[in-house]
Fold this protein.
Amino acid sequence: MRNPANLRATLRIALVVGFVLTGINEGDTLASGRLGVGLAVKIPLDFVVPFLVSNRGAPGRGDPPVTGRRGLRRGRHVVGPGIR
């Protein structure tokens, strides 16, 4: 979470996924109007969990991973098709 660009990306991911998860998991309860304490705990978790997962998957050193046809960067080496 040291890199502001990673933080913005993880927040965006958490918002999008959080709204989708809230609609899937609690949509029927919200539509019926039955709001309770349990729902007040579940809805924030729909946003916190994707934030934590996407933040954990963000590059640790602040540099974006190299992806595509050339492969993924692992440490200082580039691993790609045909390279073992």
